[in-house]
Amino acid sequence: MTFGESIQICLRKYADFNGTASRSEYWWFALFIVLVSVGLGVFSDVLSLIFSLAMLVPSLAAAARRLHDIDRSGWWQLISLIPIIGFFVVLYWLVQPTAPNRYGDVAGVASA
Predict the structure, then answer these.
(1) Which residue blocks in the chain are alpha helix, DSSP H?
(2) 62 contacts 92 by C-beta, under 8 angstroms
(3) pLDDT tens, 4-48?
């Protein structure tokens, strides 16, 4: 999946917490959010904050779909609220390869 495709898919599925997301889809979208936020921060902290807030729901949705891709519930994102260790646990799960799951087709690709 390319950078542009992942941005399109994640923005099209703005608040869709169902299905799965591949590693590349999730991480390209995360990179997009960081780059745009930093770029806007150069000009205005307010614009960067507005963009980050606008991307909160799609980033949570993409992370939930990514966790689904490794057969974990999207609710596991809440573990990141545990100081320090929670962030690393969720990060570890987000970098895992695709696994058979109960949430739909693997990484959004229809089975043949």
Answers:
(1) 3-12, 23-43, 45-54, 56-69, 85-94
(2) no
(3) 999 999 999 999 999 899 999 999 999 999 999 999 999 999 999
Please compute Rg for the chain using Cα positions. Answer: 14
Angle at 6 between CA 3 and CA 9, to 5 degrees: 150
What gap in Å lies between CA 84 and CA 79, rounded to an integer?
A: 10
Q: What is the dihedral of CA 80, 75, 64, 36, to 10 degrees?
A: -40
Residue with the two structure tokens 């960081």: 34
Stated pTM of the model: 0.87
Closest of 35, 38, 34, 25 to residue 94, by C-alpha: 25
